[in-house]
Amino acid sequence: GGEQGKNLQALLLLERTSLLRREALGIDHPDVQRSLQVLVMSYNGLGMAAIRAGGMEVAWELLRKAERVAGERSLLKDKELKNRLLAITYNNLGCFYRTRGNLHSALKALDKALWIEMSCDESDNPAATHLNISAVLSKLSKHHAALEHINCALQLLDKAMKNQKRSSSLKSKRGKEISLLVAALYNAAVEYEHLGKMDQAAEMYEKAKATAAQRWGAAHPQTIALEQALKKFRREEGFGELLQTTSSSIPIFESTRQTLRLQTSGDEEQEQEQEQEKQEEGSQGIMERLKETFPLRWRRLPGARRRKEREEEKRRRQSWSQLNCGRRRTKQRRTKQSRLCLLSDGIQKLSSCSWPGDVGERVEG
């Protein structure tokens, strides 16, 4: 639309301004570093807007630019800032791939975002990334793995909300955390329903509805939707056997855009409090759980399967080649032996013949 065109023109102007500042002031100047940060945030924001508008090609170009600016060869000197921007970019790339239906690529991008968030001290709470991964895994019918990520998100949210009660500077983020909590509880109910664990599913539906009612009130659309989902679940459960589950886990890509806006505020106190949260929550244990849960996932990807098939085909060709070489060598050896046998027979026949001039014969003149 016209607004998107104006935004893209403004982005081009921002790119030129950043380049001119870099040439005039040098890459280490604070204004240049700040302009690079704003550029990455603009790429991400406009990329997400393009996804919502259906402009997937534009979104792809913008998100790839964001990945290049914040990637391994980034000109950003602040490593923690670069990691935060890269985690946001990979989250948004996961949204892009999921919208296109490329679930394996979405999972790969979201895994990259999660590892960055878990290893980076100054990063947002990775609960939203866990929920995004669980939504993609649910689409792939990996409900046990999806539930593992939801449980990780619930633990992280519980820890964050406890810290918010003790710290007044983090109360502004409480609304976001509660929204994530409601989504996590609902997604857990859906996964339990897929796994046939009806008691746990009912409990999670009840908790999601109660949390939404306490936060937003009974008349809020989210609360009404959760109440309808619970009634539907109760109605289907009452038939004695579970009908086919039609619910699906909801992704939290909207929270990724909220995270994007939070990053631009530049509030250093909030970032310090986030660092304390990260140090307290014991991320190593969760990382070990993730390693145990997904040790061989990427070997099952289509690309890995194609590589494996090519390697097997190569080995088959090599084995056939070796076998044929062996057969050729055997044939050559037999041919050589047969020729030697024929030659020896010919020599014996020749030696048994009498010729003029041999001993014992007189040649008459």
From TrEMBL:
- Determine the domain of life of the protein's source: Eukaryota
Q: Which InterPro entries match?
A: TPR-like_helical_dom_sf, TPR_rpt
SUPFAM superfamilies attached to this UniProt entry: TPR-like
Residue segments, region Disordered: 262-289, 304-337
UniProt keywords, alphabetically: Repeat, TPR repeat
Provide the residue intervals of the TPR repeats: 87-120
- Pfam families assigned to the protein according to its UniProt record, in alphabetical order: TPR_10, TPR_12, TPR_8
Tell me what this protein is called.
Kinesin light chain
Source organism per entry reads Hanusia phi
